[in-house]
Amino acid sequence: MTAMEEALTLARTDQDTARQLLTLLTAGCRTLDGFEQERSHLFGAGIPAAFLPGARELGRTDLI
After folding, report:
1. Which residue ranges of the chain lie beneath pLDDT 70?
2. What is the pLDDT of residue 5?
3. Who contacts 12 (Cβ-Cβ below 8 Å, separation ≥6)?
4. What pTM value is reported for the model?
5. Is the distance from CB of 23 to CB of 58 less than 8 angstroms?
6. Which of 5, 38, 47, 53 is the most buried (most CB within 10 A)?
7. First to last CA, the chain
8. If 0-12 CB within 10 Å is exposed, 13-18 middle and 19+ buried, where does residue 2 land?
9. For residues 7 and 4, what is the distance between their CA atoms, to the nearest angstrom?
10. Exposure string (b/e) for 36-63, b if CB count within 10 Å is 16 or more?
11. For residue 4, how many C-alpha atoms fall within 13 Å in the half-sphere facing its CB?
């Protein structure tokens, strides 16, 4: 749990960390809705929306 809290804290100020965290948390997503839910959770945790690219920006063209 501490590692996740540390990652969230860093992601709030570091765009690369935010992107990596989003990639990690959405790796198992199969739908665009699922991806957007995970992205929304990170936004709700205080990570700036500008740090959280959309699915297509991450190359997730496989989502339905």
Report:
1. none
2. 93
3. 18, 46, 47, 48
4. 0.92
5. yes
6. 47
7. 31
8. exposed
9. 5
10. bebbeebbeeebeeebbbebeebebeeb
11. 6
